[in-house]
Structures are given as structure tokens and as C-alpha cells.
Specification:
single chain, mainly alpha, 6 helices, elongated
């Protein structure tokens, strides 16, 4: 259930990346990131958002194929981990993550609250990675036992 819930969340968010409002919503996060801000020098705000949307949709699809292709799903889990490590880095690089009226960090602004939930999604991504690895190991062991 966690795998498919994760895929739904990532895929759904990925679809919205093609909408201009979502491209504009992520712009301050990406622009302030030393890891990703340079991408706006290469791509427009909308193009980058659309590329990210494709990556997120592909990640979601890769996650759900685990019963048939656990190795492929392992790649989906790795991509999900990369996505959530990236978004969690925005907690450090984005101005205004701490709520100024409450004294700043650790009191989170709406942006900070939006980002912090990705800790749970990162944890689920790690679990799906371990699950895919176990399926690969189990498949290899059962194949070897048959020979």
C-alpha cells in the first residue's frame, strides 16, 4: 500500500508540474537552491517544471511495476529518494522557511510546513527501495534453487 500511495502522490504532483501555477510555485524553491538554481539559466521556469513533471511521472510508473519488474522499480525508488532529498534541501536553502512572527526556525512558515512532510515521503521511498531489493534477492534465490 505504501508503494502505491507514494506513486499516486508523486504522479499527481508530477501532472501539476505542467501547469503554470505550479511552475511559479516551485520557482522560489529552485531559484534559491545552489544545487538547482543554475537550471533556470538553461531552461525557462515552465520548461524546467515540465521536465521535473516528466521525471516525477516516470518515477511513479517505475514504482508500480515492482510485482513484474523489481529491478526497474528499484530505479523508481532511487529516483523518489533523489526527489525527496532534493526537496528537503530546500529547507536549508529557501529564505522564509522559518516563521518570522514566531521567532523563526524551528517554527515553520507555510513553505517550511509544505517541505517538512517530505521526510515521511523520503522514508517511504527508502522502504520501497528495500522492498524492491528484497524482491530481487528473492527472485534470484528462487531462480537459483530451480537450476
Amino acid at each position: 500500500m505504501a508503494r502505491y500511495g507514494l506513486a499516486i502522490v508523486i504522479g499527481w504532483i508530477g501532472i501539476f508540474k505542467f501547469c503554470s501555477y505550479e511552475a511559479l510555485n516551485i520557482q522560489p524553491l529552485v531559484a534559491n537552491s545552489p544545487f538547482m538554481g543554475w537550471l533556470y539559466g538553461v531552461f525557462s521556469v515552465q520548461t524546467f517544471s515540465s521536465i521535473l513533471g516528466v521525471v516525477e511521472i516516470v518515477t511513479a510508473v517505475l514504482l508500480v511495476v515492482k510485482p513484474w519488474y523489481p529491478r526497474v522499480s528499484l530505479a523508481g525508488s532511487a529516483l523518489a529518494i533523489l526527489l525527496f532529498v532534493s526537496t528537503l534541501s530546500f529547507l536549508i536553502t529557501t529564505p522564509g522557511v522559518g516563521e518570522a512572527s514566531a521567532g523563526g526556525f524551528p517554527f515553520l512558515s507555510m513553505t517550511g510546513q509544505f517541505l517538512i512532510k517530505d521526510i515521511v515521503l523520503l522514508g517511504v521511498s527508502i522502504l520501497t527501495l528495500a522492498d524492491a531489493m528484497e524482491a530481487i534477492t528473492h527472485h534470484a534465490a528462487s531462480t537459483q534453487a530451480r537450476t
